[in-house]
Amino acid sequence: MQGKKAYQEKLFLNFQLSSAVPEDNFYRKLNELVDFSFLYKTTSQYYGSEGQRSIDPVVFMKLMLVGYLENLNSDRRIISMSRLRLDIRYFIGYDIDEELPWHSTLSRTRQLYSESVFIDLFKRILKQCIDRGMISGRRQAVDGFFIKANASLDSLVQKEILDDAFSYSQELKTNQEEQPDLKILETWKQEDHKTEDPKRNLSNDTHYSPSDPDARVSVKPGKPVALNYLGQVSVDTATHVITHVQAFTADKRDSECLSAVLRHVKHNLAENDVMIQELVADSGYSSADALKALRASGVTGYIPNKNNFRYERAGFSYHEAEDYYLCSQGLKIYYQGTYLTGGYWMKQYGASAKKCHECPIKGQCTAYKMKYRKVAINETIDKPYYDQMHQRMQTSKARKLMRLRQSTVEPVIGTLVNYLGIKRVNTKGLSQANKCLTMAAIAYNLKKILNHKGRLIQNQLKAVKTKIISTVNYYCNIPIYKIILPH
After folding, report:
1. Spatial distance between the Cα atoms of 443 and 434, rounded to a whole number of angstroms
2. Could you give the CA distance from residue 280 to residue 143 in angstroms, rounded to a whole number?
3. Is 420 exposed, middle or buried (0-12, 13-18, 19+ CB in 10 A)?
4. Model confidence over 140-155: pLDDT tens digits?
5. d(CA 42, CA 37)
6. Is 424:334 a contact under the CB 8 Å cutoff?
7. pLDDT tens for residues 50-77?
8. Angle, nearest 10°, between helix axes 103-112 and 430-476?
9. How many whole angstroms separate alpha carbon 214 and alpha carbon 225?
10. In the 3-class helix/strand/coil scheme, how is 100-112 assigned residue by residue?
11. Is 248:230 a contact under the CB 8 Å cutoff?
12. Phi, psi dihedrals of residue 201, rounded to the nearest 5°
């Protein structure tokens, strides 16, 4: 007989949320894993003793986590999904008939809390990873990536235009009670100060985004120009756990961020009595300041030098004691002085133009400069740091570590961008972007903890299975291949 389901809503319903959420549900296990009660004390300084009650800090932080765990890049979507999901309602402590907070409350609360609140939660989750033996701490891999800012290229204006419009609006303020700043600025842009192509010749030196002042114009090869932030991630190579994340303005190089990242990684691990010994990164982190920071911190770095670095010069040998180069024809090229170019201090070596003019192989000399009609060699004053790194990178260990870096930190970044809602921030400003990146890293580490617990149970089951097989085989002389046990 064919069945037919008739639906009619009941006026009264006996329902218990906890019974509707399975024991193995992700959010149920997450609720048992982390104690968020410390947030009441951490956030008490942001509230007064009078007025309306705000959103519960624990509820707010859990909703933030839901957004990144579900790859939702909108506060509206976080609330919408939470209304429909029983497991999320159980996680945040809202029964099925309770109304959830407004999405705007999430935005205001995120702006209210300082970065230290989010970093504190990240460190607590990191401590759980360390306590479970998930972090060796010995070797860290570092890499950077662009995060799209919550601003459009169409919002860019030239800096001098913005200054002129601001000064003009200030003059009008003295004569009028209105505040026409935005209208004046928009009119100024539309009339005589348009560029021929708004997406060409854009520069952080000449253009500025009023909607997000901390966003910077940047581009990667093969990618369109965009307003971005620069995210830096440090990952433990043994277990792929994130040990530190930080957002920077996108006009910085990776090498300029390394010293700050290294300082925070060491601090995060040292708080749990774990010491970092080695750091692996790509050639984008190669700079004199970065190499000096590694040496000062006692950390061994594995960072390839950039392609323009010359460890040896064909036809020349360097004599460090007397600080000169000797060419293949026996001519000494002495140190002549130090000069600053492009932000780098360079040492210049040169020889007599007369002697070079008489050289029979000057046409094949790689250091001969036709403009000066003599040999001229320029080297950075920090060449010893690059030389030491070059020698280290020639070892088989360095080649293995570079392959390990690609299989460690790059997949973590891919997960953050594609599955944990960090492809684009939904906030304004560097501080807010840092909060978003920190929350994404927390969500990632929480997933690692729960998966790690599952693997531990599987490993224990395998160990028990192996022990049973070996015991039966020993006492009964039954061939091991004839014993059938459930997987």
Report:
1. 14
2. 9
3. buried
4. 999 999 999 999 888 8
5. 9
6. no
7. 888 899 999 999 999 999 999 998 999 9
8. 100
9. 16
10. CCCHHHHHHHHHH
11. yes
12. 60, 35
